[in-house]
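Aim 2 progress. For Oxidoreductase, the working sequence is reproduced below.
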Amino acid sequence: MDQLTAVLIGAGGRGFHSYASYALDFPHELKIVAVAEPNASRRASFAEAHGIPEQSCYESWEPLLEQSPVADIALICTQDRMHFEPVMLALKQKYHVLLEKPMSPSPMECIQIERAAKENGRLLTVCHVMRYAPLWSVIKRFIDEGKIGQIVSIQLNENVGYWHIAHSFVRGPWNNSDTSSPMILAKSCHDMDMLAWLMDQPCTRVSSFGSLMHFHSGNAPEGSTDFCIDGCAVEATCPYSAPRFYLSGEGKSFYSKYFTNDFTGEPSRDKIVQGLRESSYGRCVYKSDNNVVDHQVVNMEFANGATATFSMCGFTLEPQRVIQIMGTKGEIRGQDDQIVLRDFLTHEETRVAIPHQTGHDGADKAIMRNYLHEVRHYHGQESRSSASASVQSHMMAFAAEQSRLRKGASIELAEFYDEIAESFTQVGR
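Predicted structure tokens for this construct:
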């Protein structure tokens, strides 16, 4: 097995710990030879972990990608609105690309990325990691084997978790669509992708409703302060208290082990307190600059007449996805670590237990393993989560957001795509 080489653009949580860490676990398969990361502390930590010399460490992606290629692969894990330019240059420089989702907050840029991958003959895989997770892989196999006949309808719930939405989508970097992406894209493009993959049919029509119902200044309790730690009169009884999240671990102990890294490079209590005073993660959830929805529903119709409903809600205790797939011969229900298959003819019930693994239940490692195999044997084929497949589900998300902004008006996907493609053609003239 030939060792492949890669450069990492963006050494944040996903890039550093989810994808590039594969090179540490399987050094005979992958070696990271350069990194571009503006945060000096993260850049230094990543370079030390992977043995990258100082001359191969960059503050920005431009000097790394503008030179002659130094590796086989570019892992691009920057923030949502920082994907397009490095992806396009990496493809032009003939890197194969593994791109963190979403592709881009711009529909036109998504189409341009897809076309650039084809024009340059490079393998571009988008990190829709759920396609590689054991739970969803087994569900897909059952469907493909005809276990439930033809799919008639799917119901998919994404329970974000009250502590996760407060951390990432109220206080964190995905809290404002003007600087990141709308919620349906930033958090739920995974779900649009799963529905498209399981249905295996073009989505033809979308409508959507949702709003920022709770996390805004109109709901700020009397006596609350801009920062939880600054003498807030209701902090002790607020379920979204930042000190409770990050110091006591009362909400989820996971915070103290992982999420505190988002605002402090040193997980000491003094550094956490400092972060709660100085960073957005210490702000009151009712007095942040967030504008993304905290709940949303999407209705979808597919080419063969099948339908799907999707619900995203931030007001749940645990983050989890729950799915029910209803077919002409049976149904499938799945959540967490279990799948239940029911047969209408025999009433037989099959239960499949899925062992829990770290990293999206093993999907982060699985997508890397698959991707490296596909790069080694690349002859123009598309991957399981290719740019082309991702554009389809991204368009579903973009259309859903357009519908929501138009008070639930139905959006025809073909017309929606054609309008964007036409705009792209006019820009290119």
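The first helix runs from residue 13 to 19. This observation will guide construct design in the next reporting period.
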